[in-house]
Amino acid sequence: MPLLEVRDVTKRFGGLVAVNSVSFSIDEGEIVGLIGPNGAGKTTLFNVISGFYKPEAGRVLFMGRDITGKPPYTIAKLGIGRTFQIVKPLLNLTVLENVVTAALLKSSSLSEAKERASEVLEFTGLHEKRMLKASALNLVERKRLELSRALAIDPKLLLLDEVAAGLNPREVDSLLELLRQINSAGKTILMVEHVMRAVMTISQRVIVLHHGSKLAEGTPSEVASDRRVIEAYLGEVVF
Amino acid sequence: MSLTSLLKTPLGFLSAAAVALLAAAPAVFKAADLPFPANTLLLCLMYGILAMAWNLLSGYGGQLSFGHAIFFGVGAYTTMVLMLYYDITPWIGIVAGGAVAALVGAGLGVPLFRLRSHWFALATIAAAEIFRLSFIPWKWIGGSAGLQAPIVPREKALYYLQYAGSYVYCYVAMLFLAAELVVLHRVVNSRVGYYLQAIREDEDAAMAMGINPFKYKMIAMVVSGFFTGVGGGIYAVRFRFVDPFAVFDLITISVYIVVAGILGGMYTFIGPLVGAFVFMPITEYVRVYVVSRFPRYYGLHVFVLGVVLLVIALSVPEGIVGWLEEKGYVRKLKERW
Question: Is residue B230 within 8 Å of residue B173, measured between CB atoms?
């Protein structure tokens, strides 16, 4: 049984078909990249999986259980953590409080949540900034905070929406190292990514979306040499 | 925390001094026959109870309510009705008033929490107006004339909680305020407090962390409604009179609560109480001494309200306690001598 199964999911906004009958599945322990040109429907698909959008058609199954149209907090409780492409820090709270809030989901007490949050922050490298308000963080740190919060709910599946965007090469490397460690700790990762170097080095499998439909699926090298994928990307470049 | 360890920091010392002063004040006012400071102190305490309650929902939870007069009015009427029609002591009636207000909060939460941000705020005003307008023709509880408690013989004073002046009521208010502070402190330092702030900061982020916003907004509404209802009950016994126009008033109840909360600092625990202790003396002074001197200029107290709001917005938008925290004064006060 796959950990996550997306079956013929369609999401429309008025006349626009943002996601068009997309199917794929992800096995436990995988790192899967979800790529595609701007407007391909990647974030929309994330929002469907995590419960923020209700699809017009299709089903989403998590651990064999139908989670289609369930509210986001129920899906989070079931074990899907996510980050947002446009980061959503709790600005007036400290970094630690941000992560404690998330850690409370799987903790029976506040002190336990504080302990877990500290561990997560140690791991993501934000521990020194834990007493700062989230509003004092720069974008790179805010992305780390997103990741920390998603990790703190101790999910089985992590949906990462462009966590590498805006990072310099060295920061990308340290992020990839972090993701590998998260993965080897038993967490499955589905990541939307524009930074090709990131997604191609770390993913075992890549799914390509284009105009809301699945265009290709395979190992990074298979996808990179796929003619339709190259066209989809090159066709979009307007210099 | 023991008293001796409390006194080791300036903040602890100041808090202890403030509590001691407060405890002594009504007795001193009574001995010196000073009704105005006693009345003002009671209003500070009462609006302190209200603003602290309001802050759980609107400050911590970010659900801006301009309709807390609903809970206040329901609490006041409940206490009064229980006393007049069922001969139940206000000691029970005030708590019952809180309970009924909490129930009303739960009922109102269902439709109101379908709305977000300014739409929620507008709907709370509308809801409060509906309550006021529905109580006016309600003959069983006195209609537009309201309900008045008769004077009782002196030996029944404790049962009916009826005393001359504000002095005794100050102690009653302090009792309930202390209980409220204990409860609210526990609530905001629990899962509920963290979740409410997450909902305030970003509802989507909160949901992604497994938080059901509706559930926690409802908890905040019920607790907030309870203590606001208690405040209404204290009002009812002090003034022995309730009518729909006074207890459901938009400005003097709903908006005064909001102003006290914002003035003291919405994102702080104790801010709203501090705000009430700054705002109410100003308003009371203007109402009693200034307005009476310029009887032709009706609405002068509302003008003062406007000035206070303007000053907050321009100089301390984060509120008094928020400002103190931001400048690091609170941290300094928490350090040992």
Answer: no
